[in-house]
Every structure is written in structure tokens, then in C-alpha cells.
Write a structure and sequence with these properties.
This protein is mainly α. The chain is built from three helices and no strands.
Length: 80
């Protein structure tokens, strides 16, 4: 019982703790700190979201394909 409680509590605590992080790539920092008004911060944020979406999309597609293959395999076993 205690182990199950710890397994549930640990992820909750890890997500609840919010530590400030100042990580940024050098190119993004240079583009945002320049005074020539060439790059808007919103454009940089949109680019980050755009680049972040594709890995999640690929993982989702691969997961769906694996799910469909498993369902077909289970259906084939039940038919025999």
C-alpha cells in the first residue's frame, strides 16, 4: 500500500514543484535581445511551438500504428 502511495505521490510532487529556469538557445537570445526590432518575441514563440509539435505528432502516429497492429493481432488470435 505504501509503495503504491509513493508511486502516485512522486509524479505529483515533481509536477507541483516549479523551479525558475533560464534556458534558451544562443540564437534565440541574440534575436530577442537585439534592438533592431527584426524579430518579435511572439514569432519566436510560434516557431518553438511549431518545432515542438512534430515530434509529438510522429510519436502519436507511431503509437497509433502499433495500436492498430496489436488490435489486428488480437483479433486474428481470437478468430483461430
Amino acid at each position: 500500500m505504501q509503495r503504491k502511495y509513493i508511486q502516485w505521490l512522486l509524479p505529483v510532487v515533481l509536477f507541483a514543484v516549479n523551479l525558475p529556469v533560464h534556458a534558451q538557445c544562443a540564437m534565440c537570445r541574440a534575436a530577442l535581445e537585439s534592438n533592431d526590432q527584426g524579430v518579435q518575441p511572439e514569432a519566436v514563440n510560434d516557431g518553438i511551438v511549431y518545432l515542438m509539435a512534430f515530434p509529438y505528432l510522429l510519436v502519436g502516429i507511431v503509437g497509433f500504428i502499433v495500436y492498430r497492429m496489436r488490435q489486428k493481432s488480437i483479433a486474428k488470435k481470437e478468430a483461430q
